[in-house]
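Dear colleagues,

As part of the handover before I leave the project, I'm documenting each prediction I ran so the next person doesn't have to rerun anything. This entry is a single chain, and its sequence is reproduced below.
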Amino acid sequence: MNSKETIIISLGGSLVAPGEIDVGFLKLFKHSLAKYLKTKRFFIIVGGGKICRVYQNAILEFGAKQNDRDWMGINVSRLNAEVVKQLFGKTAMTEVVTDPTKKVKTTKDIIIGAGWKPGWSTDYDAALIAKNHNVKTIINLTNTDYVYDKNPSQFPDAKPLEKLDWASFQRIVGDKWSPGLSMPFDPKATKLAAKMKLKLIMINGKNLERLEDFLNNKPFIGTIIN
């Protein structure tokens, strides 16, 4: 590996494929990261998103067990990851990382990862990569502006939170994982990240200038958990 600063991005699948593949977003995402490749390298761990839940709900109708639904999510995340790998072309490592416990050795500046095993989401995989590569910060690109004290789609009075500690965040996300769970961050990943004393940056990926603000060490719109 090279000596550049390593940045881990947990890229929400709903940004990649909110219905069909959002090619426009992906091109802008590539353009944003390209500005930093002289000084940084990026692990991009790609989630399954809404389309994942469509598949999971379909097989649930046919009696699929939790393990089956988890594997469906993993496979969708890997498919999304292949799209993101193609996006970056020769800048990206050839293989998609599917085992976050293994050290990655490459001179490439873009490393794409996807789902690994049943029982958690790609957020947990991102935390494992942080552990194995001694990275202290994860950026979670999602489709909301902040972490809220409760679900803003259900509660109009939900309050945005700019900063909070891990214990407060754990109370928001809970401690139980289920396939297709829609939370700001996987509960199991939250436990691991808290134990490792990581910093988690939550940014709305639909506004990539906010990601650039963070990478430029400028004030940004989003939530910091540490």
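Residues 5-225 form a domain with the Carbamate kinase fold (CATH 3.40.1160.10). The longest helix spans residues 66-88.

All the best with the project,
I.
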